[in-house]
Amino acid sequence: MPTLNIQGRRVKVDDAFLQMSPEEQSAAVEEIAASLGVQAEAPESAASQDARNELSSLTQKAANRGDTAGRDVDSFMRGAADMASFGLADEIAAAGGALTGIDGDFGEYGRNLRVQRIIQNQRDQADPIASTAGRVAGGVATAAGAARAGLSPLARLPAKSGLGARIAAGAKEGAAYGGLYGFGSGEGALDRATDAVGGAAMGGAIGGAVPVVAQGVKSVTKPVTDAVKARVNPGQYASEKIAERLAASNMTADQAAARMGRDGLSLADVGGKSTQSLLRTTTNIPGKAQDRVGSQLTLRQMGQGDRLKAVVGQTLADPDGYLAAKDDIAQTAQRLAKPLYDEAYSTPVHFSESLEEILKTPAGQEALRRAEVLAANEQIPFQQLFINVADDGASATVRRVPDARGWDYIKRAMDDMIDSGKDSITGKLSNEARIINNLKDKMLSEIDSVNPAYKAARQAWSGQKSLDDALEFGRDAMRQSPEAVRRQIAKMGPAEKEAARAGAAEWIRNAIDQRNFTQNAILKFFSNRQQVKNLRALFDNDVQFKTFRQAIFAEARKRSTYETVKGNSTTVRQMADMAETGGLKEGADFVGGVVSGRPISATLQWVGSRLRMLGGLTPEVADNIAQRLMTSRPDAVRQIANELAKIEKAQITSAQRSNAIQALVSRALAAPSVAAISGN
Q1: Phi, psi (degrees; rounded to nearest 5) at 104
Q2: What ranges do the domains of the chain cover?
Q3: In this predicted model, what pLDDT tens digit does every residue of 250-264 receive, in sequence order?
Q4: Could you tell me which residues come within 8 angstroms of residue 62 by beta carbon, excluding any fewer than 6 positions away?
Q5: Which one-letter DSSP state was computed for residue 1?
Q6: Where is region (Disordered) located (predicted)?
Q7: Cα distances (Å, whole numbers) of residue 596 to 213, 544, 589, 591, 614
Q8: Spatial CB neighbours of 264, under 8 Å, sequence gap ≥ 6
Q9: What does the mean pLDDT of the chain come to?
Q10: Residue 445 phi, psi dihedral angles, 5° rounding
């Protein structure tokens, strides 16, 4: 601050004193002297006189050149140096004058500093435009240097950073710059601290506001630029819109291409709801895409069942081979077992006391009754007679008893009785079924001992019968518990497992065929955890199941695309399309903004929504988008992936450039404002 010498008393005055006229200065000095009780003789300090002489000299130099260009250049350079040095330019100049005597008094740092600050104040008053422009240039220069050195928070932000992150980084950058400038431009510890706080607050406010303003400008201008790009290069614009949607789903072009490379998936399938919504929008725009997309999705959905059956055939078993397998098993069993059964049926079975006791039990009597019914229906009665001679030998009783065929019928009847007592989920036998099973085993042991051909016939038949049982087990496996399925599969040999997989494939085929062409067949056999676990137990290895599951997920993605595009009613689709273009939301925001007292902000949003009605999504653009989103041809996939990768790279570069520019603007705008706060 300038200092006056009034009769040996040193009095500091502010810079406003130097802006007074000589008469006003004299009056001020007299008033100060009176308050101090001394006589004022010198109305002007030496510093003030030196400053006036310096300004007079500079003004004369400019006048000698015939215009004010020299003064403007000097004001510009002083302002630039002041901002580039964070407010230390006057101190640097004063120190240089004190050391060299150039542009100052040798050894008089304090006096030189007062002169430099008076000159700078006069420059700001006389040439405000040149001085402010210089400060802006100085701020831009330091911002560029900080960005190159990696010290700019805004310039260091990732390219895809949101508005909140950019506001925070801008505020951080502005606060740091403003605080440094305020500290450098202050006088004394207290003054520097005060100016640093004020500069940081002002710089932070301005720095944080720049990204908001930039975003607002972009939202207003983007609809216009979109409309132009859409008409000049619809294909490029379509790719840009798709790239935006992929970015919204946090997916890169390479990731999308990798997912599209299998199972006939399209870009709409792998891009998630964001790209599916974009495809839906294309169907709401009159043009080629509207009818083609709907037809294409419907036809693709109608082929879902055949695709699912194909993958079942590749990884599990032929879903159409069940009947053939069952017929083949039956024919093979009949061919192998018939001659053995013929031999066994022709061999007499001694009606022993043990067999007679078995038939006297309730289970034996029930089995015999059923066997007699079977024999009567086949019109082949029991051929064996049993003669019971009395103890005295004088009389005998003759009755018809089961022959080998009859015992086989009794055995089958007991099998049915045992099966009826088996738990359908756990496979465990009830107590009654377990007792009947033991009774059957005792009977067969007795018969086999006298009729070995019957045992051989049963063994030949049971080998094929076990395959038939495994086939039926597989067809019923989805209704059982995962534990029961795993336990039963563990007991099977390779051939029986193959039969079980054929049965499961038949169940899946039947579930698929029960669905309407456009319904989601996956829900019938892959919709709950139990069915998934049961299917996993039936697969031969993890690789096959993984392949099957990937195909199921691919079909689920295709179905999701179908439902997103075709699942809405007409009204809902129209409203969704309006929301897609921003009309509904921005119209509501406009009304809400006006009501809440934000007319300027709301008006800008409304203008943006109206400009958007120019339309980037023209029929031609919609057609280009639909073609790109729906294709699954490998060559087309590669081409689209390359296009999107180029756009991603360009967008990243553009975003980085935008962040760097916002960093420059933050400092450029903060520079004169912080200077005003600091009083320079």
Answers
A1: 175, 175
A2: 315-540
A3: 888 888 888 886 788
A4: 68, 69, 70, 71
A5: -
A6: 40-72
A7: 20, 61, 10, 9, 28
A8: 307, 554, 632
A9: 74
A10: -60, -40
